[in-house]
Design goal:
mainly beta, OB fold (Dihydrolipoamide Acetyltransferase, E2P), six-stranded mixed β-sheet, about 0% helix, about 55% strand
């Protein structure tokens, strides 16, 4: 599986993942953070935020009901 898209909200005290940030893209009221999780691309969609400016990592929690998963060919699994 590759490139899960995660809708991010404020992470609880114990995050599911700590990601290496590659780039953050700010588009009006929405921001996308492109990050690396052990060699896998993770794209996080979140309300507009510049919180990650100057940071190399981002701690996130994943709500499985809101996560999208894709296979290596880019086809949506869920």
């Amino acid at each position: 599986m590759c490139a899960p898209s995660i809708s991010a909200k404020r992470a609880p005290a114990i995050p599911d993942l700590t990601l290496q940030i590659d780039v953050a893209e700010h588009l009006g009221s929405t921001s996308y953070v492109y990050a690396n999780a052990g060699g896998e691309l993770v794209v996080i969609e979140r309300e507009e935020s510049r919180h990650e400016l100057g940071q190399n990592t981002l701690a996130v929690s994943i709500d499985a009901k809101r996560a999208y998963l894709f296979d290596a060919a880019g086809h949506r699994l869920r």
